[in-house]
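Checked the freezer inventory, then went back to the computational side. Two predictions to log before the end of the day. The first one is the construct we discussed on Monday; recording sequence and tokens without edits.
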Amino acid sequence: MANFRVRTPARLLFWRAVRFLYLLWGGMILMRLASMGQMRFPAWIWDWPGFASKLTSPVGKGLLFGVGLAMALAALKEIWELVDILLLKLLRDGRRER
């Protein structure tokens, strides 16, 4: 039999909240920087001028904006599931009290 770790609801909610904040913060920062044209890349990227020029082109900025948008949408899905888990837990606790 497989050994499955039992996750407590508090730990599950904590990791979901951390993942939500990471996705939301990262997505918003990436979208803002890509849309304003303020992307700063590490020095090792400039060792490959062809790759660096593609990232700084409008298509590259659009791709980075798309990745940021996908992260923001994933954060929306994550908070939706987090609220769903909390509501189900509250409803189950309310039914037990009856």
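The second is the one RB wanted added to the comparison set:
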Amino acid sequence: MKKINVFQFSLTLSILLIIIGTVDLRMFALVPLYLTYLSILAIAIGLIDLYYVFQDVAIAVRIGVLLAIAAILSSLGPAHFSAILQFGKSLSLSIADISLIFGFIVFPLVYIISYFHSYSLKEK
């Protein structure tokens, strides 16, 4: 059985949390419909990249770094900050905030750090 590496693990969890957040935001109509479509597009791109990361395609791992950077940058918008400030006010907002923090920040950071760590190990 093939061992799952950090890239696969962090990208999988990030996509899973983005799916949970997207469903939550859509079910409770917390965002406009076009943002839901953009989230679905991001999920599709992430799933395609994840497939190739599981196939050990080197360029897919590098694309994953770019996707992780894009996820982090997209989470820095003022709407996300105001949403995080509402954490705990309702279950739906709390789920959205948790998925934002882990899906767009924590797991993408793990991916980036793992990439540069593995890159530095290859250089030695």
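For RB: The helical segments are 6-27, 33-54, 58-74, 78-85, 91-123. The CA atoms of residues 10 and 110 lie 7 Å apart. Let me know if you want it refolded.
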